[in-house]
Here is the input.
Amino acid sequence: MFIGTDRLTHTYMPGTPYAKKALDNVSFEIKQGGFALVIGRSGSGKSTLIQHLNGLLKPTSGRVFFDGHDLGQKGSELLKIRRKIGLVFQMPEELFFSETIFDEIAFAPRNLGLEETEVQTRVIEALEEVGMEAEQFIDRHPFQLSAGQKRMVALAAVLSLRPEVLILDEPTAGLDHSGQKILFKLLASLNKKKNMTFIICTHHLDQVAALADQVLVLQEGRLVMDGFPQKIFGRRSQLIEMGLSPPVTAEIMADLAERGLDVRSDIFNLEDARAEINRLRRHRVK
Amino acid sequence: MSRSITLGQYYPGKSLIHRLNPRAKILSLVMVLILLFSLHTYEALLAQLAVALLLIWNTRVPFRYFLRGLRPILYIALFAIIIYFFFTSGGVVLLRIGFITVESHGVQQGIFIILRLITLVLFSLLLTLTTTPLALTHGIGYFLKPLRYVGLPTEEIAMIMAIALRFIPTLMEESQRLMRAQVSRGADFETGSIFRRAKSLVPLIVPLFVSAFRRADDLALAMEARGYRVGAVRTRMYEDTIMPLDWTVLLVVIAMVAVAWILGL
Here is the structure.
């Protein structure tokens, strides 16, 4: 068991008229090096879930585990675990408070109590990881950057913890198409090269669907689906019924099938879709 | 902490008191408070306390919310007991410890004062627990209106109060979100000396200010886009009309005050 939950339930403001069950008996597991997507409508409990995975909330009942530890425990154990699980919040650039990009990224490693030379190494390493020239950027003010660059710095500010797991909440919110593309390319390479485990909450499945090897679907606090992307995105009508939009490529394939073409129904990324359509065309020509 | 601040004190419900017009409630409360201060017999005070308890029962708001509201006056009550019990003379001596005596007049008056205080707070809680902060602000704004003639921008004051109330939960939520986010980056807000802790608040306060200013900017723009002008007369989306029920309640309160005064209670 690497990271996951066991019958996790969370109730906000218990015992008041405003009490709300945000998570209800959620159990799942994500393997080391896995790339999981958490999808669901707003208010389905995604944000609550990922905060649990970072030990920021205490379960009302159930357990959250990571690498053999229970995150529900108090004390320094939690702090040790937390530095291995990086959490990138929605609109993470809103957290900026430093006067230079260096200080911003150095915040996390300094909190770990590292030597200043080690901090410096980590800041430069994190900036290069997100594809930014360290020398060019470290002395600049974070607010001078473009939206895409800010997002990358925010990501670097978490990567400087050298986490084993990276959790991202709506990482593409507010980014343009090319920004999204760059971001996902980066995540994919971190996943492959460093075997970093990813858990991503998102509404924009088109670009990220191809990277995933596991999809979790939340509905009103309950985990209603958990499995391979092929399996989940194959249940198109069910997803639509839940108010979720499957990847556009899956939609196109379904549309083609509806028009009487013999296409596979389990396609949800651009490369496979292209190959399948080419296969069809060749078939036609013959 | 966040729970008590987030939504004011309002406890949702559909009782008679919940449905009353906030203006009628505020006016009734003012009259009842004046009445409470003019009462000087135990019978009348206990009758008022009974009325308060009856109304509390009617609201269906759990009593522990009222108890929580009473907590702040605990120390005042304790202070009153000490002052009255030990320093008021007259009547029969009930207790003698060295040169300190507790005499019956003091005990009587002390208990009277505390009962009055409790009744007073209970009535006030009846208002704040059954009225949304926004309705309360509108109600207060209504009674401030006459002050416009002495040059006070009452509409604007009401607007400021309403906006402030509206944004308290938003900012609370925001600060909680920021706090969690910085904690996940290894920030520590809880341990260390006071100086250290104050310094550790910087990563929280700077983003909070940035977002508050941005929100204020957005709000100002949105308000102007919808035609808000300083000094203009505003109409309300929901006009709260005074219903027959409100008149009835007001008349009952006036009758109560009148009876008390005529009988000299």
